[in-house]
Amino acid sequence: xxxxxxxxxxxxxxxxxxxxxxxxxxxxxxxxxxxxxxxxxxxxxxxxxxxxxxxxxxxxxxxxxxxxxxxxxxxxxxxxxxxxxxxxxxxxxxxxxxxxxxxxxxxxxxxxxxxxxxxxxxxxxxxxxxxxxxxxxxxxxxxxxxxxxxxxxxxx
Length: 156
What we know:
The protein has helices at 18-27, 122-131, 133-155, and strands at 7-14, 39-45, 52-58, 68-76, 80-84, 87-88, 92-93, 98-107, 110-119. With 156 residues, it is α+β, with helices and mostly antiparallel strands. The chain is globular, with a radius of gyration of 15 Å.
């Protein structure tokens, strides 16, 4: 069995350079990270292995996800970011749900962006699917692609 056996993933081709896609992934997460009308708030994003990753999502009817806390495992600027919720900052263990793998690759004149949720087991994967991985991450991808392409178009 490989780690990919428990993956859920979304991918798209973005008509924008990889460096710009990375910058918008880092700097403007509030604009694309969760499906509208929900909104995201970045609490902390310490882009280094062991650095804290914390985001909170708010729903249109007052819903509050509470902080989604984890750490970065790997960061390669303009190419890759890997986070996990198996640990809070300071390597404090917590109940794991997934490892997120955000990949940016050159493709033609633009970027191939892939977001993967790698789960610890089949049960966690099934639970995420039932929670609405699709269409939630699909909508996140649409919003992110639109933001990147809008920024490129306005820079011309």
